[in-house]
Every structure is written in structure tokens, then in C-alpha cells.
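Handout, page 2. Input:
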Amino acid sequence: MSSTASGKNGTWRNWGGNVAARPAREVTPASVEELAEAVRQAAEDGLKVKAVGTGHSFTSIAATDGVLIRPQLLTGIRNIDREAGTVTVEAGTPLKRLNVALAREGLSLTNMGDIMEQTVSGATSTGTHGTGRDSASIAAQIRGLELVTADGLVLTCSEKENPDVFAAARIGLGALGIVTAITFAVEPIFLLTAREEPMTFDRVTSSFDELWAENEHFEFYWFPHTGNTNTKRNNRTAGPERPVGQLKGWFEDEFLSNGVFQVANWVGRAVPATIPTIAQISSKALSARTYTDIPYKVFTSPRRVRFVEMEYAVPREAVVEALHELKATVDRSRLRISFPVEVRTAPADDITLSTASGRDTAYIAVHMFQGTPYQAYFTAAERIFTAHEGRPHWGKVHTRDAEYFAGVYPRFGEFTALRDRLDPERMFQNDYLRRVLGS
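Output:
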């Protein structure tokens, strides 16, 4: 997959194919100084500025008609501090490269999301997360940040230095400045045993609290039009390593999860009436398996089938009720959903606009195959999620605005006040930020 989806004649497109933009110019700075200079130059020319990672957001959070900053030359590890247990990386570093480089050094992040195509700054700025009982999102593992602000200056922040900026900028939505480097907490590499097994929807939902409490990382996928789910439990282990065999891995992760799934989605898109039958087969295709490996090989998996996604964070105690409502809605509708619904959790954190800010959280993600009409399904799902004071993922499809966010984020005003201070001229504004943060 190309590092970022880019079209002909200066049109930028995101990975999901649902957002396009035509920037006035593109800049690929080779240093922080060059990036700061590009920001100062844009200000002189009266242009807005946006940095873009690999385009994995489904919202137009990175779109601009001004200056588009591409960070692919700002990559690599700057520094590893084993004593402090931290690593400092350039903002354009893809998570995949960070994970491999850390593993080589015998280190790992504590938790991560399920794909690693994104840049570290794109992933953290939008609040990318995996699932965890005690360990939180990638942004919650940040110990320090460096960012270029609207005046072209380089600001560093941590719990000790500019703590008010640190509280917000870890998930800054690109609204406070352009992140140029991130310091993450890391730990000595460890092994995880993954246990994947099918389970009925009724059993998962009735024993959700126990499954959550008994596992460090619990998640499941429910297949609409069926009563079936696939569950995944990841827990630390002393070993030994027992990775998925290459042939078995190819068959399950590439052939079934990507190849056959791609074809099933093509059939479903052409003949929606076949989807419930396909769902029944898909939901039973993957059998139980257990394997033990280093973290990034257990947490992440390839996602080659293109889709559009909406994900909401609801209070953890509301997740089962929300899921039952979603299932009832799908069952009595004429919707035909070929993609599973993904359910994950996160503990409360202290980041101003984190979807888990101040509350123990569960995530419900709904997906539709790229190119199929998703509005009816997403609208119905969003109605359920917002009734539970849901907070949408900043990088996934949603229709919420600043007025809504002021109601579901107790510290929303703190973020907008900081933005007023750091970017009074709205250098980093675009249509998306105007909607979600107000102008």
C-alpha cells in the first residue's frame, strides 16, 4: 500500500477514498527548521496549514486547500533512554517502523491499535487505540511532545514543561500546532498469548464484565445478521514463543481475513440479498486458535479490504445495552451489513479530548465496504451511540459538532481556550475543525 493515497494533478485522497482535497502547495520538510519555515511562509502568504500522515482517517481532519505538509522525511528514532524507559521519534515515523526498530532494541510499547500503517503523529493526534483493561491508547503512552506552533516557533511540552499544552496536545487533532517529535514510554519487550475463539453474541454480552476483568486485552467482532462473534484475548506470558505458522498465518490472516473477505464483499455489494448468508459463513470461517508472540505481532493484523468506519466510545457500563440496541436495529431493518462490528475497551485517561477522558470506556465500531452506501446504517448506529453520551473517534465518520462535544467532554472549554492562545489566527483550521471545535 502506498504510504499515502494521492491522486493525479495535486489532488490528495485518504485511504478510505471518501475524502479528497486540492492543496495550493505541498511541502515535504527534511528538518524541524524547514517545517517551521514552511509555517512562517504560509502565514505570510495568508494560507492555512495542515500536516497529513498516511490518510487513514475517514474524516477530513487533514484536508486543506492551503499548504499540505508531508512528514515522510521526518522519520526515525532520535533517542532511546533506557533508564527513563522512553524513546523519542520523529513525527512522520510509521508505527510499523517504530515497532520493528523497538523490537530490535528489545523494547515495546505497552499497547497499540490493530493496524500499524499510520504515522506516530497521525495515530496519536486522532486518538488511535487498541483494547486494554489497564493500558490505554497510544497517546496515553506519550511522555513528551515537540510541536511547531502558529508563530513558527518550536514548543516542547511534558508533565513538567508546558503541562497545560501537554494535557491537550497528546490528542491535539492538528489544531494546536504541527507535532514534530514524540517521546513514548516503552518497556522491555514481552510475550503475549492470544486466544481467539468463536462465541455466541448472547454469551459474550452476558459475560462481558467477566471477560473484560479476566483479560489484559479483550475484544470481539460480532457479525450482523448472525448470533455469532469472534473473541480475542491477549495476556502476558512467560513463553515460550509459539507464533502462528507461516502457511497457517497466510491462510487465516491473508486468504480468509483479506482475500475471501474481499470477494465476499464484492458479491455483497453487487447482490445485497446474499449478505446474511455470507455473514453466516464468514462468522464460522475462522476457527479457534492460540499463539504466543511479541506484542506488535499479536496486537496488529493486515487490513487490505478497504472500508469506511464509524466508531463511538461509550461509558463501559453502557456497552452491552448499546450493542443489544444495535443488533435489534439491524435485525428489524432492511440493512445488509457485510462487515463485522468491533468492540474494544480502554481505561479512563487524563487527556483533554481523549475519547476515554475521565471515564472507563468501551468502543463500538461499525464498518461498511468501500463503495457501498453507508449513511443509513451509520445514522441508525449514531443515534444509539449518542443516546449513551457517546464520543466519536476523531478520525472516523461522524456528524457531531462543537455544541455536542461541549456536552460530552467536561474539559472541552479548556481545549478551545488553549487553541485560542496557541493559534488565535486559526492557521491550522479547516472545515472539519471548524465543525468540531467551533470557529
